[in-house]
Amino acid sequence: MGSWGVYLEMNRTWLLYDLFVAESARQHGVAQLLLDRADQLAKETQASFIMLSTAVDNLKAQNLYEKNHYEKDSEFFTYLKHVNA
User: Fold this and answer.
1) What are the phi and psi torsion angles at 51 (to 5°)?
2) Helix 30-44 and helix 59-67, axial crossing angle in degrees, nearest 10
3) Cα-flanking dihedrals φ and ψ of residue 59, to 5°?
4) Per DSSP, what are the bridge partners of residue 15?
């Protein structure tokens, strides 16, 4: 069992999908502000956790997420199936 553990919850979960900061706005703390706001909304809605993903080569984003106490999932792979392609 890894850091996520095994459990069943019926609580709200937040999924940050396609978190993106325009290149012209980078290095100005915008990503941190977005994560802070997501944290605030998750707490206000009593969510159990926030989930997000990033490209394996996006080291800047990974560093930011880990700095904000996000844990890298090492036990599960993500699978996608495009049905309208």
Assistant:
1) -120, 140
2) 50
3) -70, -35
4) 51
Tell me the three state secondary structure of residue 54.
coil
pTM above 0.85, yes or no: no
Q: What is the chain's Cα-based Rg?
A: 15
C-alpha to C-alpha distance for 9 and 40, rounded to whole angstroms = 21
Q: For residue 38, give the nearest of 83, 70, 11 by alpha carbon.
A: 70
The DSSP call for residue 24 is G
Reading the block at residue 32, the tokens are: 């941190």
pLDDT digit string, tens, across residues 10-47: 788 899 988 889 999 999 999 999 999 999 999 999 99
Identify the CA nearest to 14 among candidates 68, 40, 69.
40
